[in-house]
Amino acid sequence: MTEKAKPASGGQGPRSRKFASRLVQYVLLQAVIAALVILALRHPLPEPPARYLVATFALSDRGAAREVTLPAFVPSRSGMNDPAVFTANFTWTRGETEQAWSVYLPRFTNGVEVIVNSTVIMDSRRDPSANRPDRDTPEIAVIPASLLREGTNELVVRLYAWEPISGFLDRLFVGPDDVLRPYFEQRTLWFVTLPTVFSAWQGILALILIVLWAVRRHEVAYGMLAGAMALGAAQTFLVTVVDQPRHPELNATLIASAPLESGFILGFAILFFARRWPRYATLIFVPGVLVVLVGLFGTPLALRTTFMLLGIPAIGVNLLLLALVVGWSELRRQDVPSLMLGCAVTILIICLAHDLLMVAQILPDRRIFFSRLSYSVLLVAIGAGLTWRFANALNRVDGFAAHLVIQLREAEEKLRASFAREQEQARAMALARERTRLMRDLHDGLGGQLVSIVALSERGESASGIGDAARAALKDLRLVIDSMDDIGGDLMLALGTWRDRVAAQLRPHQIALDWQIAPPGLPVHPELRPSHVIQIVRLLDEAVTNAVKHAGAKTVTVHIATLRDASGPYGCITVEDDGQGFATASDGGSGRTAGRGLRNMQTRAARCGATCEVVSGGAGTRVRLTLPHRFPESDAASG
């Protein structure tokens, strides 16, 4: 037993050392990131030149007056009727009239009103985004040239502060607008534009996650992350109660829902990385729910106090637990999402600690909050984690697809032989059908002509009669051969060949051929078969032959056109002569011959899916062949 236990303990030693090595590397990495973040936070933001700084003010606060140097703090108030008043002077000379001057306020809490020479030039309370104490919204106000006086000018700043945050006014600058505005725009980019852009992206991500969760309801992690993203996006675009929204309780509750949002993100991390829900994990939502209930049913002051005493500590605890979850996942799996999210959480924790230490005045308090800005790093890390998981899923799908490809190749080899046999059978069947059609066409046309030639020769008819019958047989043979040409569905090619034969047929009888084509001719039919072509040409031949033999016509007119109806374009071919008409079967007289010829033409038309209309009278005979929109594909149509 001892000999068996030694390898086991020896195997655990390297595994433990490997785990300890990973732990040390991970902790050192997070320590380096924390040190870099601290150095970046200690680096001061760029400020305008010192000559435009107005630092010394006379402060009038609650009936007491004293001299202060900015930055300065004032106690919080329960209302906005008693602002702290800062008064100072700045110098302006008439030589600077060509430049617009501005007052630049990098940071303040919560609202300010700027007055130059007894005239209000800016009131931040009109800008809801500037009244949020968790934001670093700068303000700049251009001083109208008419207000500036040669020499000393009075500057008054009224600072409004409401509980529980104390009032704060950072250092203030007065000078040329083209000098101060770049600093204002830089701070606006960092603390207003970028958070707004990330919040908009957060809202889009929330919609995508809601759809994903609706499709995959068993993926509860997506539902929790969707809730967190939706709350974060809502917090950005809502105004505070001070700005008098339509639903102040709901606005205040959503703005203070950061503890609930952090609980959702922690729940997402637990399900995403640990893949199981611990027994008491639901407790992480308790602080956030309490803050929401106080916001909906309590007073604004109670909500602010609850958020400060319960909400902020809950956010810190959730972030620490989040760091532990992703750190443990990284040590076990060493995957990229865990590492990126762990680094992002470290950055966010350091920034949150920095902001809290400033509020507690443990660090020099300039009220420059970086928590919202660093939260964007967490969003990017979460997006990268989801992308990684999606890419992994695609890789697994690709692997499964590759396995299926191998199986399909094996199945293809088995099917290929069967397909080749079936294809050979299809060719044989097609060849048999074509052979049958040719035999039928030769029997119907050439066979009858040859029988006539034999009968004429046996009766001792003249050579001219036998020659006519032989020429008719040759003509029918050429017709069968021409119908086998590949015309690509363009019946006009076959009609062109037929025109040459008709012209040669009419020339000895001194009958003119009037060939009329209405552009663009006939539609192209890809489904057109040789059996259709031979039936159409034979029908037209019969119409022309009747005009030559029986009508005594001087001119035969062939008109070709494309017509349209509700179903689309269709072709129409008309053969018309100016000779003597004939009586149909219903008119008596020669009705038998005319009736038999009419039925023959209509039978040929029906085999092609077409219709044939014959109209005859004293002015001549007109045969109108109306082609179908689509020819029948079955060879049985040839009859």
Helical proportion, percent range: 55-70%
The whole-number mean of residue pLDDT values reads 81
Q: What is the overall shape?
A: elongated
Reported CATH architecture of the largest domain:
Up-down Bundle
Name the descriptors:
single chain, alpha+beta, Rhopdopsin 7-helix transmembrane proteins, six-stranded antiparallel β-sheet, five-stranded mixed β-sheet, 56% helix, 17% strand, elongated
Task: Give an account of the 3D structure.
- The protein contains 13 helices and 18 strands.
- It has 639 residues and is of the alpha+beta class.
- It has 4 domains: 1-43; 50-187, Jelly Rolls, CATH 2.60.120.260; 193-395, Rhopdopsin 7-helix transmembrane proteins; 488-638, 2-Layer Sandwich (Heat Shock Protein 90).
- The strands form 4 sheets. A 6-stranded antiparallel sheet has the order 3-2-5-11-8-9, with no helix packed on it. The chain has a 5-stranded mixed sheet with strand order 14-15-16-18-17. It has a 4-stranded antiparallel sheet with strand order 1-13-6-10.
- Helix 12 (530-551) links the parallel strand 14 (512-517) and strand 15.
- Helix 1 (2-42) crosses helix 8 (336-359).
- The two termini are 94 Å apart.
- The relative contact order is 0.05.
- Mean pLDDT is 81; it is low at 1-9 and 588-593.
